[in-house]
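ok trying again, last paste got cut off:
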Amino acid sequence: MITVFRYDTSVYKFRDWAELVLGHQNLERINEKTLQNAKAPKNRVYQFITLMKNAFEADNDIRELFGQFVKNEVAIRIDFEPWLSIYPNFRVHEADQEATSPFHRDRDYLKERGSLKVWLPFTHVSKGGTLWVESEEGKKDYRPYEMKYGEALLFDSLNLEHGCFFNDSGSCRVSMDFIIRKNPMLV
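nice, full thing came through this time. structure:
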C-alpha cells in the first residue's frame, strides 16, 4: 500500500512550527544556518532533529495540532487502532549530503506488526532528497516520491524497503514521519 494525500497547510502549519523551532525562515537552505560545535553534517542533522524533538515534547499546542492531523487526515484514510501516544520522528537531509541511514524496512527496527508509516515533508522534495520506496516487497524497484509541502505519503514501511540517496536536489529536506497501527479487527 502506497498512497499520497494532500492536507491543508493553513490549518496544519507544521512548516511554520519547524521554521520557528529551527530559527530559520527557509528550510530548503537550513544548511546555511551556523550551529555552535556542529560542523560535520551528521552532527548538524542531529542538532536540528533534537531541537524539533524537544520542542514537540514541550509544546502542548503542536502536540494537539498533530493529534488533530492524525484524527482528521489519517483516520479517514485507514482504520487504525489509536496508540496512547504517537510521537513523530523528525528528519533533516541537507543538500549535497549522503543519507543519514541506509535503506531498510521498519521491521528491521520495529517489532510492531500491522503498522503503516505517514511521512510529511515540510519542504518540496525531489531527486536524492526525497524518500524512495520499492513498489512491492523484495522488488527493489525504488521510486522517488517527489512531493510538495502539504502532501503526505502513507505506506507499508514495515514491509517495503525505503530510504534516501545522496541529496542532489539542491535543497534541504525537513520532514516528520510516524507509525500508526492498523486495527487488526478491521484488516
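cool. The first helix runs from residue 14 to 22. The first strand starts at residue 2 and ends at 6.
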